[in-house]
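Hi again,

Forgot to attach this to my earlier email, sorry! This is the prediction with farnesyl diphosphate bound. I've pasted everything inline since the attachment limit keeps bouncing my files.
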Amino acid sequence: MTASRHAPSTLQGAYATCESITRSEARNFFYGIRLLPPAQRSALCAVYALARRIDDIGDGDLPAAEKSRALAAVRAALRTPPDPADPVLTAVADAAHRYPIPMGAFDELVDGVERDIRMDTAGLTYQSFEDMVTYCRCVAGSVGRLCLGVFGSRPHPEAGRYADALGIALQQTNILRDIREDLLNGRVYLPREDLDRFGAELAVDEFGALVDPTGGLAELIRFSAARARDWYADGLRLIPLLDRRSAACAGAMAGIYRRLLEDIAADPPSVYRARRSLSGWQKAAVAARALSGLGPRPGNGTP
Ligand SMILES: CC(C)=CCC/C(C)=C/CC/C(C)=C/COP(=O)(O)OP(=O)(O)O
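Structure tokens for the complex follow:
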């Protein structure tokens, strides 16, 4: 570890702010993050807090031009010494001195959020599954690689690719969970070619619930979930390359989201009316299993 460039109290405060952001915002991922030893937990909270800030710019209420300006400001801030008044940038800069965090991955995340803005303003959609994966790589594969920087791993030529694949698996789950909410916000992430193949049109009724007159949407969700399972299987090859606590963290994050995927696959119409989630007990059980070294179950991910 290198010495900090900041007064300890300022830095401690910066990390504490990031931890409190993560605790309140990362309702799924904090179950994994809290399994890390303190120094890595603080670094990952800093990464999460900055990723959250970038994401929130894209999902917020500002006009598109202002969102673009705010994203450009984040890009510029990542290339200059951190503003000491900004706890998130201060903590991220310190964490990047302590761990080999691939800072360029934050730029990829910004690229992904810019795609969201183009979806809002210019009707950008994803034609093929590969197009959608490119988006997932930007917004979530990037986060997987940032996490890996904090975790560290046994040297392995595929470690970065596995971290990327795990992030992409999580994002595919997120897309299925949020089809309705995203549509209400004018966003469609499911590839056009898949919608066409299953004869699924995305539309809501007068209560804001998704309609599925042919059952094609349910079929498409089941198909997409099966495909996402393969991305989990690939990404989870990272786990044996990690130390025990990092493996527990990644295993809990993946286990919770994969359990969510299986719940959705078992009952696709459950996402038509509301956002699906696991109970606190279910999430804690998946995290406990990950900490005990058992990790997510092969197959259906139930704890
Ligand atoms: C190697 C490794 C650990 C890979 C995983 C990387 C990772 C955590 C990617 C995040 C992808 C994702 C679905 C973010 C949504 O965050 P959100 O805060 O909006 O999620 P929520 O809506 O479920 O709370």
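Residues 11-291 form a domain with the Farnesyl Diphosphate Synthase fold (CATH 1.10.600.10). The chain has one domain: 11-291.

That should be everything now.

G.
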